[in-house]
Design brief:
The protein has 458 residues and is α/β, with parallel strands linked by helices. The protein has twelve helices and 17 strands. 32% of the residues lie in helices and 16% in strands. It has a seven-stranded mixed beta sheet, sandwiched between helices. Strands 14-15-17-16 form a four-stranded antiparallel beta sheet. Helix 9 packs across helix 12. The chain binds pyridoxal-5'-phosphate.
Length: 458
C-alpha cells in the first residue's frame, strides 16, 4: 500500500483530495516533517495547478448564448417543439464532418454510446469481445450488459491494445475488438483494423479520451466499423454529459439510431416509423437534448484550439524530459495527432515511480481537491482492469449469473485478476500520470519542468 495519510493535518499544505473516476479517494501526501527522505528546499510552487476539465476552461458567452437560444425557443427536445431549432441534428452533421464520417448520432453519454454501439453491432450471449487492460469500466459494462463476455488483452508501450496480444486472445467465439484510445493519444488503429479484417471481427474505437486525435491526418474513430465519443466534463470538449456514436455504415447507423431511442427509426418529421420491420428493435432511451447539443456546437468549434493548447504544453514538458535516461516516455504514434491531455512517464521500477511522484507532489505538482493531478497509475481506479471489482468478481447483472453462467458463455473462461496482463501490470506499477490542463501558462509549464528536474536529479 502507498504510504498515504489522511489525518487531522488534512487541510495542511501537502494534502490534497482527488477523484478517481466515480470513486472519491483521499490521497494525502505525507507531511514533510514525517518523512526522513524529504528535501529541504522550498516547493517549486505553492498554488495548485489548474484543474484538468479541458473544455470547461474555454466556456464563455458563446455557450451561454447557445443555451439561451434554445431556452428562448422553448423547444429543448430534438424531434419536435413549438419552435424547433434542430441543434442536435446540426451538431450531428458538424461532428460527422469534423471526424470525417458519414453518420454521427448524439447520445446522452459515452457509456450509453458504448452500449448503443454494442447493440447496433449485434453483441450478445455466446460472444467474446476483446477489450484492453487499460480502459474505463464502461467498456466492460457495455459488453456484459449485452450478455457477452469481455476478454482483456494486454497493452504495449502506446498504453493501448497490443496487436500481438489481441491475436493471441482471439477464439472462435470472438466477435469484435474495442480499441480504446487512452489518455489522449491514439493506439495502433491500423494494425488492429488489419487484425479485425483478417478475422472478420468488428472494430469499435472508443475515442472518449481522444476526441480530436488522429494518426497521420486520419481521425480516431474512422479506422473501424464504429467509433464512440464522450462529452462528459473531463473530456476534450464538453456539455457536462453527452456522447456520440459515429460510423460510415448506413445499416449500422440505422440500428444505432433505433437502439438509442425507442427501438424504431423516425421519419424526417421526427415521427416513429413502425413499418420498417428490420428496425423493430429495443431502445435504450439515451437521446441527446437540444440544450446540450447547442453547447456542443460551440465547443466543437473550440476543440482544435483546446487540443493545440494541451499538446503545446505537453510537448514542451516531454522535450525537457528527453535528456533523462531514467524516464521512459509513452510511445506516441503521431505527435501531431496527440490531443495532449495526459503526460505519462515510466520509470525503471515501482519504487522509483513512487519516489518521483512523491517528490513532484512535495514540489507542489498537485491540483485542487476536485481534480486529479500527478498520480501513480496504480491509483487510477476503474481505468485498470484488475481494479474493476465487478469484473474480477464476475458480478451478475440479474443476481442469477447473467451473463457469466449462461449456457452460451460456458466455454469462455477469462481471467481478470492482476497478473492476466503482465505488460499492463508492469507499466501501471512503474508509471506516473499527469493530466495536462488546457489553460497552463508558460510559468505553470516551467514549474512542472523544474519539479521534474529536481526529482530526477535527486
Ligand atoms: C475511455 C472511456 N470510455 C467511455 C467513457 C464513458 O463516458 P461517459 O462518462 O460520458 O459515460 C469514458 C469516460 O470517462 C472513458 O474514459
Amino acid at each position: 500500500m502507498p504510504n498515504w495519510v489522511a489525518g487531522p493535518e488534512v487541510f495542511g499544505h501537502s494534502f490534497d483530495l482527488e477523484y478517481f473516476g466515480a470513486q472519491r479517494v483521499i490521497v494525502a501526501t505525507r507531511m514533510a516533517s514525517h518523512d526522513t527522505t524529504t528535501t529541504t528546499h522550498a516547493p517549486v510552487r505553492t498554488e495548485p495547478l489548474p484543474l484538468e476539465f479541458p473544455g470547461v476552461h474555454h466556456m464563455d458567452d458563446q455557450e451561454i448564448e447557445a443555451v439561451i437560444r434554445v431556452l428562448r425557443s422553448r423547444s429543448p427536445f430534438r424531434y419536435y417543439g413549438v419552435n424547433l431549432q434542430k441543434e442536435t441534428e446540426q451538431f450531428e452533421a458538424e461532428f460527422a464532418r469534423a471526424v470525417g464520417v458519414k453518420h454521427a448520432l448524439a447520445v446522452g453519454s459515452g457509456s450509453s454510446a458504448l452500449s448503443v454501439a454494442m447493440a447496433a453491432l449485434g453483441v450478445g450471449p455466446g460472444q467474446e469481445v476483446i477489450v484492453p487492460a487499460y480502459l474505463w469500466v464502461s467498456v466492460a459494462a457495455a459488453v456484459v450488459n449485452q450478455g457477452a463476455i469481455p476478454i482483456v488483452a494486454d497493452i504495449d508501450d502506446t498504453f493501448c491494445l497490443d496487436p500481438r496480444d489481441v491475436e493471441r486472445k482471439i477464439t472462435p467465439r470472438t466477435t469484435g475488438i474495442v480499441l480504446v484510445h487512452m489518455s489522449g493519444a491514439p493506439g495502433d488503429a491500423m494494425a488492429i483494423a488489419q487484425i479485425a479484417r483478417r478475422h472478420k471481427l468488428f472494430l469499435l474505437e472508443d475515442c472518449a479520451q481522444c476526441n480530436g486525435g488522429s494518426i497521420n491526418g486520419r481521425k480516431a474513430g474512422t479506422f473501424g466499423d464504429m467509433g464512440i465519443f464522450s462529452f462528459q466534463m473531463n473530456k476534450n470538449m464538453t456539455s457536462g454529459e453527452g456522447g456520440a456514436v459515429v460510423t460510415n455504415d448506413d445499416h449500422v447507423y440505422q440500428r444505432a439510431f433505433a437502439c438509442h431511442d425507442l427501438g424504431y427509426v423516425r421519419d424526417e418529421n421526427g415521427r416513429l416509423m413502425y413499418q420498417n420491420a428490420e428496425m423493430n428493435l429495443w431502445g435504450k432511451g439515451c437521446r441527446l437534448d437540444e440544450l446540450r447539443a447547442a453547447i456542443l456546437r460551440v465547443q466543437l468549434g473550440k476543440l482544435p484550439m483546446i487540443t493545440a493548447a494541451m499538446r503545446r504544453s505537453k510537448y514542451r514538458i516531454r522535450q525537457a524530459l528527453e535528456k533523462y535516461s531514467g524516464v521512459q516516455l509513452r510511445r506516441i504514434l503521431d505527435s501531431a495527432g496527440d490531443t495532449g491531455c495526459f503526460l505519462i512517464t515510466t520509470y525503471k521500477d515501482a519504487a522509483t515511480a513512487r519516489e518521483i511522484n512523491r517528490r513532484l507532489r512535495e514540489d507542489g505538482i498537485i491540483t485542487w481537491p476536485q481534480g486529479v493531478s500527478n498520480i501513480l497509475m496504480t491509483q487510477w481506479g476503474l481505468h485498470l482492469y484488475y481494479n474493476i471489482a465487478s469484473l474480477v468478481k464476475r458480478t451478475s447483472v440479474d443476481g442469477r449469473g447473467f451473463p457469466w453462467s449462461l449456457a452460451e458463455n460456458c466455454d469462455s473462461r477469462p481471467s481478470y485478476e492482476k497478473g492476466a496482463c503482465p505488460t499492463a501490470d508492469s507499466l501501471f506499477g512503474r508509471s506516473v500520470l499527469l493530466p495536462i490542463p488546457s489553460c497552463l501558462t508558460e510559468g505553470d509549464e516551467q514549474d512542472i519542468i523544474t519539479a521534474f528536474d529536481r526529482a530526477l536529479a535527486a
